[in-house]
Design brief:
This protein is an alpha/beta fold. The protein is 21% helix and 19% strand. The chain has 14 helices and 20 strands. It has a six-stranded mixed β-sheet with strand order 5-13-12-9-10-20, with no helix packed on it. It has a six-stranded parallel β-sheet with strand order 16-15-14-17-18-19, sandwiched between helices. It has a three-stranded parallel β-sheet with strand order 1-3-2, with no helix packed on it. Helix 9 packs parallel to helix 13. The longest helix is centred in the C-terminal third of the chain and has 15 residues. It is globular, with a radius of gyration of 28 Å.
Length: 558
Amino acid sequence: IQVCQVRPACSQVYSFFHSADPSACRLEPLLEKRFHLLPPFSIPRYQRYPLGDGRSHQLGDAIHNHSALFLENSSLNIPFSQESPGSPNASDQPQGKPRKLSLDSTNSENSGSTESLPSAYLTNITAKWWGTKRIDYALYCPDVLTAFPTVALPHLFHASYWESTDVVAFILRQVMRYENVNFKENDNLDPATLSPSNQREKWLRKRTHVKLRNVTANHRANDVIAAEDGPQVLVGRFMYGPLDMVALTGEKVDIFIMTEPSSGRWVYFDTAISSSSGRISYSIPKQKRLRVGVYPIKMVVRGDQSSAASYLTVLPRGMECVVFSIDGSFAASVSIMGSDPKVRAGAVDVVRHWQDLGYLIIYITGRPDMQKQRVVSWLSQHNFPQGMIFFSDGLVHDPLRQKTIFLRNLVQECHIKICAAYGSMKDISVYNVLALSPSQIYIVGRSTKKYQAQCQFLSEGYAAHLASLEFSLHSRPKKNNSRMILRKGSFGLHSQPEFLRKRNHLRRTMSVQQPDPPSSNPKPERAQSQPESDKDHDRHLPSVAWVRSGVHKFESVP
């Protein structure tokens, strides 16, 4: 049976592959043999063309642009342009005169070439095609991969594919429409506050400029969970240098809250002065307190416009949560500091399973808060679902005790209910203090007799555990609470430390993936590192509106 006689149960097929992948193969020449003379359609880079580069990947356009290759009496050795199908060449034109390609209309392309290509031949090609567009699409392949052994490339490309922004942007352009939207400014708003980068002000202290010379900001603001009827206190610390060498002392810090997350508009609340240790603590006044919901927080330093981001989550009583210890549950290697550890297979899918059931995800770690940017970037890099992250306040000699105190305070003060907890054997004592039953404690690793009666060991990994959660009564949807709408999705990447930008990130990815044998069940692993060029990580957050408002403009979000 011929390939063209087998039609898929869909209207269009897209085959993505890296040109340097030794295991990749093309489909178009199987449907029409002359397509082996055409290069695959190159997917535009998202960093350069976020809305596409305007090149058409319609089948008819590709045939007309290279019409000489598809003439019945033409030779297969006819030279043609090796450029992308959307870039016409003089050799492609029947009269020898180049014709300007219109990116806005494909009708003009068709009308200019139909005379040189018989319609019957065109119909013959389109009749056996799988859709109306090109099928083979080549992804960007960085030059640094030429130094890798060939046997390692398929594993590396597989990991890159699932986190490629080029692929995501291309798919979205195929299934979504977008229109130019004109945003109208509110007459009551100060135009100077609509930009996320306001003008810098002079430091209040003269020595601040000298202290902060040649050091980078390492600010962090704690994620906050507050009860619906309790106080809402925001805490941040503003430090400079990789090891908190310099504290921002006696300087202004503006506090913004996105009171309506759907609008993307930041509302100015107040300005605080940092203490001698670089800390600020701001209690939201009672008349401005926010209702049940999840609200992004941003604290901006007036002097240099550096900032710290966090979330405020206001919960109703009895909110059900699932706790994950970052180091004990997710990391398959030793340390996040200075390297990019591999994620345990299936960990992201398990977290997403609980999020889809409606539970609030709480990430906790004994690491000091000075590592927040590194840890959040690592979670974002591997597409972990959105959740609240909590660190130890500085360097502590007993991180397990800090975890216990923190979780116990959440249960007592915010009235949350922990339904499941994940971690390592070190975390068993923490979860036992919280009065969790053995069926609610999941420990990653081999079973031991000492703790066998105190927890559930995930000795077969997260994949088997996820299957048991989906097909058993171990997990259930969260009890309905119409007032609480949790923020779903993955972490937004506020900042990326240098260790995620280095090229040796590719070698670390290869070294931790190469020993793993290929799985018999090719389930997409979404928690792998993305080996793309350095500039792929220079992502910029979209501009949002910043609003200074008085008391009368604050409205609680239902």
